[in-house]
Write a structure and sequence with these properties.
The structure is a single chain. The protein is an alpha/beta fold. The protein has 2 domains: 192 residues, Medium-chain alcohol dehydrogenases, catalytic domain (Quinone Oxidoreductase, Chain A, domain 1); 125 residues, Rossmann fold, CATH 3.40.50.720. The protein is 30% helix and 26% strand. Helix 4 packs across helix 5 and helix 7 runs parallel beside helix 8.
């Protein structure tokens, strides 16, 4: 079978297409014919600097994929050959609180990922694909969608009528916008692109802020909420944006800390003074994934895919992610 693998510290240029023997599922495992992957910023960072995160070479990248069950290992029940499934980001986080053992089962990092024609996954490390989604759409769910769901619904306890500040228009933020619309919450979206902000408004954004024109976007968000501040922030920027996110959130509000796109020092005093709940979010469990998929199916939610690339063009998909011009998700189809 064909795979893409990271073979060194040369960034995207160190991605190599190779042939490996098709894997055979052992007890408690299943074989999956992969039909689509999606790329996350975490996958790009892994490809660009694998040594920094201790990746052993060669390593198959990408946490997210969907396909068809092709084989069942001994003892597997509840699944059948031909079932459409999406792999879980963490192969060993079924439910409950995250653990070090769960974190060690992250695909495309500590273990091989999904950028291969065939993979073996744990039977408890997959979920059924919602019936209204194709493989490419299903492949966008394991990381970006579940991260947004965990940050807003599980950690944040999002309620109808609450206001959410979303930074940018990447995969997590666009899923968060869709979940806000699904749950009756008001979303404020930031971007430096007026075209992207217009697309966000068409998707249901309540307000938008061009942060190139309005560098003090936190104050703008506060003004939009009558000076009180937003109930939630989906913080994907990192250290460079966190101080403004803290300024934008209301007293007693919630910040889902997700991304590390920018660097910067943060003064913790405003967090204390405002009793802000700052929660680090690292994707989510299989139980959360199942709950999210139930909401997606009930609401008929369709993921937003910006670009689709062929398997042979996987390096171009990473360069597209690196250029940061996308709106929603970037997908590789097999």
């Amino acid at each position: 079978m064909k795979v893409w693998q990271i073979v060194g510290d040369g960034g995207i240029d160190a991605l190599e297409q190779a042939n490996r023997p098709a894997p055979v599922p052992g007890p408690g495992q299943i074989g999956v014919r992969v039909r689509a992957n999606s790329i996350n910023y975490r996958d790009l960072n892994t490809v660009r600097a694998p040594g920094r995160v201790g990746i052993a070479f060669p390593r198959i990248p990408n946490s997210d994929g969907a396909g068809d069950v092709t084989a069942l290992g001994a003892g597997v029940t509840g699944l059948a050959v031909g079932d459409r499934v999406a792999g879980c980001f963490f192969q060993d986080w079924a439910a409950g609180a995250i653990s070090a053992a769960a974190m060690a089962s992250a695909q495309g990092g500590p273990i091989d990922g999904m950028l291969a024609e065939e993979v073996v996954l744990n039977a408890h490390g997959v979920v059924p694909v919602p019936g209204h989604l194709d493989y490419a759409e299903a492949a966008t769910l394991p990381c970006a969608a579940l991260t947004a769901w965990n940050g807003l619904v599980v950690s944040g306890g999002l309620k109808a009528g609450e206001t959410v500040l979303l930074l940018g228009t990447g995969g997590v933020s666009i899923f968060a916008l869709q979940f806000c619309a699904l749950m009756g919450a008001r979303a404020i979206v930031t971007s430096k692109s007026d075209d992207k902000l217009e697309r966000a408004r068409r998707m249901g954004a309540w307000q938008t802020i061009n942060y190139a024109d309005t560098p003090d976007w936190a104050e703008a968000a506060r003004e939009m909420t009558g000076g009180a501040g937003v109930d939630h922030v989906v913080e994907v920027g990192g250290g460079g944006t966190l101080e403004q996110s803290i300024e934008a959130v209301r007293v007693g509000g919630h910040i889902a800390m997700i991304g590390v796109l920018t660097q910067g020092a943060v003064n913790p005093i405003p967090v204390l003074r405002k009793s802000v709940r700052l929660h680090g979010i690292y994707v989510g469990s299989r139980a959360m994934f199942l709950d999210m998929n139930a909401a997606i199916a009930a609401g008929g939610l369709k993921p937003v895919i910006d670009r689709r690339f062929a398997f042979a063009d996987a390096p171009a998909a990473y360069r597209c992610m690196e250029a940061a011009g996308h709106f929603g998700k970037i997908v590789i189809e097999f």
